[in-house]
Amino acid sequence: MITVYSDAHHAQEGRAELNDGQLVPCYEKPARARIVLDRVRSAGLGPVIAPDPYGVEPILEVHDKGYVDFLAAAWDEWVAEHGDRDALPLNWLAPNMHRRHVPASIDGRLGYYSFDAGTPITAGTWTAVRAAADCAMTAADRVLDGEPAAYALVRPPGHHAGRAFYGGYCFLNNAALAAQRMRDRGCARIAVLDVDYHHGNGTQEIFWRRSDVLFVCLHADPRQEFPYFSGHADEEGEGIGQGFTLNLPLPWGTGWEEYAAAFRVAAARIAAFAPDALVVSLGADTFIGDPISRFRFQSDDFLRLGAAVAGLSLPTVFVQEGGYAVEALGVNVVNVLAGFESAARG
Ligand code: SP5
Ligand code: ZN
């Protein structure tokens, strides 16, 4: 399997996030991609290629222009106001507060476009997120050009980023960009399968009113877990998109056996949709050793997950999302990809 990778991810290196009432070192850090890349190479998964440059135009099919302009300029505006330190928001809109005006102040706009205090904007954020988007779209193109599968080894992740919001360590929605790219190249229907531990609220929001992209998500129940406000089983899409979002929330403590039962429901929905291709939002934060998560996957279970994805028999673009047990991340992620490949070969 081809891996699409760029060193530019290093440009995103946040100092701290707000967690449990303290500023703690960012869980989403460059070492994550380094260890996965090392494992891709040592396991002999396949060639590692650089992304092609796509420019900003395809990004604007998924994201709002005002939001993208904000992301591109936020760091410089922040530094002019506060100096050379990570930009974090401090206040947000609550329901029924006015949303008529985009604030002029950088502090106001950080709050306007975000939903948490865990996602610092740094000097290199824009550089890194552009490279990640390029990797995801390149992987999508390689699959449409005939590769059975490709893996976009990216950070920062993307599935919490919506049309006009960031949070959950995500700024641009790499999986949504891959899906949209395949639509633009003539695929009629794309399924996005999100197996990150957290609900992919950004991907859900982007495709909420669409019937051409099916969004299926297995994740920790939002009654217990971040992002708290979405991912309930009764969220099914709206308008023409009604029935094209499927959420399968699972309780803290979920292990492979219970997960596999939910996966069968996900697989049946995807098969009924009969997509031309599949995008997998691949988080490995379902691992028992993950420092911020509470599922109980063992490393071998990721092989089983990969085989289960292969059972869908679709051209498949894997896009890296979360996973914060850094020492085990390479093994766990590459287990999914290797499990996929050996099952796909039969
Ligand atoms: C892409 C992705 O996986 N984003 C996850 C963002 C989660 N951020 C909030 C984490 C809150 C963790 N709180 C529990 C810490 C245990 N003490
Ligand atoms: Zn996650």
Task: Write up this protein.
Strand 6 (190-194), helix 6 and strand 7 form a beta-alpha-beta unit. The strands form two sheets. An eight-stranded parallel beta sheet has the order 4-1-5-10-9-6-7-8, with helices on both faces. Strands 2-3 form a two-stranded antiparallel sheet. The chain is built from nine helices and ten strands. The longest helix is centred in the middle third of the chain and has 20 residues, at 125-144. It is of the alpha/beta class. Bound molecules: N-[3-({4-[(3-aminopropyl)amino]butyl}amino)propyl]acetamide and zinc ion.
**How do the helices and strands follow one another from N- to C-terminus?**
EEEHEHHHEHEHEEHEHEH
Determine the strand fraction and express it as a percent band. Answer: 5-15%
Shape: globular
Q: State the helix count.
A: 9
How would you write the strand order of the largest sheet? 4-1-5-10-9-6-7-8
Mean pLDDT: 98
Largest sheet: 8 strands, parallel
Give the tally of β-strands.
10
The percentage helix is: 25-40%
Distance between the termini: 15 Å
Task: Break the fold down into its secondary structure elements and pairings.
Layout: E1 2-4, E2 16-19, E3 22-25, H1 30-42, E4 48-49, H2 65-82, H3 106-112, H4 125-144, E5 149-152, H5 174-184, E6 190-194, H6 201-207, E7 213-220, E8 245-250, H7 256-273, E9 277-282, H8 299-310, E10 316-320, H9 326-345
Parallel strand pairs: 1-4, 1-5, 5-10, 6-7, 6-9, 7-8, 9-10
Antiparallel strand pairs: 2-3
Helix pairs in contact: 1-9, 2-3, 4-5, 7-8, 8-9
